[in-house]
Amino acid sequence: MEYVLFLTLTYFIGAIPSGYLTAKLFNNVDVRNVGTGNVGTMNTMVYVGYLPGFITLFADVGKAVMMIYVSRRLFGTDLMMFMTTFFVVLGHNYSVFLKFKGGKGLACLVGLFLWIAPLLTFYIFAIYLVFFSFVRSMNIASALSLLSLPFLFYRVNSSPLYVVFGTLLALLILTKHIRPIMKVLEKRDSIKAFEEEDLKQL
Q1: Is the model's pLDDT at 181 over the cut of 60?
Q2: Which of 123, 58, 115 is nearest to 84 (CA)?
Q3: Which residues of 90-120 are buried (b: 16+ CB within 10 A; e: fewer)?
């Protein structure tokens, strides 16, 4: 029973919309109505300001770090560490306080990295930069980078538990990338069609 109560609490902590609250506090802006509509770090930073963006980043990473710390103290198992991370990300991405909308969960994932292997943050960012240099889209590059998560977790610990939760966390976060990626691809198709129509006029 204590596991259910703790994971329920973890969801609600994860669901605290840091970006939304920060944007309201600093600029009285509803961050859901600007830019991508995402309540995470990047949208807050670009459309509200650098300071609110960095506060959002630290708050979202902090949610995960805090709850993982409590989980380790109370239960002390890797399984509960991963379950805790999953529910933090679930709350962050589908916040009950924002009608089940939210961020993308990447900052919360960094909180887990800081616990199991801080260098993972550097590795996945390096992978992201490689993909971004080819696709020139933050959302597509982020999604492709997430595909490396099971492999990176395996490199940290070859236990099936790490691989399974690396896969589950990647899938959970990828669900928030589908719509932005579709918009990027539709926009590129529109631009390509416009350019082809222009060429016909030459």
Answers
A1: yes
A2: 115
A3: bbbbbbeeeeebbbbbbbbbbbbbebbbeeb
Q: How far is Cα of residue 152 from the mean position of the Cα atoms in its chain? A: 17
Residues in the chain: 202
Distances (CA, A) of 153 to 12, 16, 90, 170: 26, 27, 19, 11
- Residue 136: left (phi > 0), alpha (psi -120 to 50), or beta? left
Number of folded domains that form the chain: 1
Query: Given this model, what pLDDT does residue 138 score?
Result: 84
- For range 135-150, the mean pLDDT: 88
pLDDT score, position 71: 96
143 phi and psi angles, rounded to 5 deg: -60, -45
The 10 Å Cβ neighbour count of residue 187 is: 11
Phi, psi of 14 (to 5 degrees): -60, -30
Task: With 0.85 as the threshold, say if the pTM is over it.
Answer: yes
196 within 8 A of 112, measured Cβ to Cβ = no
Range of the domain at 16: 2-200
